[in-house]
Amino acid sequence: MAQMFKSLVVAAALALGATSMAVAQQRVPDDRVLKVIPFADLQALDPITTTVGMTQRHATMIYDVLVARDENQVPRPQMAQGWTVSADNLVWVFTLREGLLFHDGTPVTAEDVAVSLRRWAQRDAHGRQIWAATASLVATDARTLTWTLSQPYGLMLFALSKPSGLVPAIIPARIAATDPATPITETIGSGPFVFSREEWVPGSRVVYRRNERYVPRAEPASGAAGGKVVHVDRVEWLNIRDPQSAVLALQNGEVDFVEAPGPDFLPLLRQAGMRIAVTDRLGSQGMIRMNHLHPPFNDPRARQALLYLVNQDDFLRTMFADPELFRVCHAFFTCGGPFETTAGHNAAFGRDKARARQLMREAGYNGEPIVILHPTDVQTMNTATLLLAEELRGIGVRVDLQAMDFGAMAARRANRNAPGQGGWHIGLTFWPGLLIAEPVGNTPMQASCERAWPGWPCDAEHQAMIDAFPNTVAETDRRALVERIQVSAYQRVVPYVPFGQWFAPVAHSPRLTGVIGMPGTMILWNIQKAAR
Hints:
By secondary structure, the protein is an alpha+beta fold. It is built from 16 helices and 21 strands. The strands form five sheets. A seven-stranded mixed beta sheet has the order 8-9-10-1-11-19-12.
């Protein structure tokens, strides 16, 4: 089996004309190359135009941010040397640290930061709220950024330190001036890695080089914050989607790190001496997203039908053999997070198929094919999608499963056309528990109509409660507001249907040390690889 896998890798490399890449690798010692199998393929490069996790992981590699979160989710200075806030919380002044350079050698200035954050603020849920309260955002000198608000925003540092979702990446001003709806084509950042565009083979390989110009912070690495010290010269992301092939590659020393090993293979990996680690303490929440634009799911009764149909325990046990890797979670805002609540949950949810069938009929469903986007290359999503299709057929729904990889699904779900004209009805995905732990950061919870995340929920009352959250000061009032939002989500809007929370471990070679974790992303600095 091992020999067969090696043969497949060689054949694929030859088919892709990868001779020049192989020559380049020969010049780099094995212990200076980190080979990684990420959870999906990288297909989009602009971290502002998509929330796809692989794009955000890419952003973490090549871009830096003004503020970053440590392992305890505390915002820390990153590109910023520090900041001050006025007594009325309206004027924020950030000072950049010295020595910041973009990959092309040009200095990072406060103007670059200002233009980058303006672009981010047009797309991100937090950013739009901040921008609505912004009086001015200006570079007062080369290293000083002054952000003046018309009213306080309680989540300012929380928003600027997001490690995923839409990362507030800092890019050169000339690139950041691109319309936020138009994907950027240049990939110049100031982060610890440089994207090797000439070696990028979509569907096969992504290559990053160590940024020799990068000056890490002096403090130790912690989460996405601290000193981003890179101990390897080259990082390769290899798109090996078959779980067994990924496991064999790790066992045979062909790769060093697997971000999402198949749960069924964990005992085998442990037995082989590989290291298994849960690097994300808040895990991920599975989401069944319905398209609110088109029948039948433009009717809330059809969306409610899925609440009565989907039994989280059934889904989780089908996806994971090890019960320690998952938990049933009825909190839209992350179990284990500061705003966990079961408000609005009905004990009949997931347990009443007759009610689900009735609600579909009441919504006007009459046997039309329901288009479900089916990502086959991510094992957990593949399994969950197949189970949902089976459950829907059980209540008389005609299912049209359309197979694609996860990246293609992410592109397809932006299509607002009718399902029969290239659109869709249902897509399954998952979001980091860290990002959805409060109402504004929970992007799929937004009901802002055409500005909402694909699926496009539209409900002014629901959205008004979310918009009010950052201005709610007292903790008791905040919790009460979170509960009202969740009741609205369960009983009226149903922006999506949660199907559980899981804590997917990473697997890596025992040759690696310094592996650190951060909810919602993959951290590849700080890692050292021992020589054979």
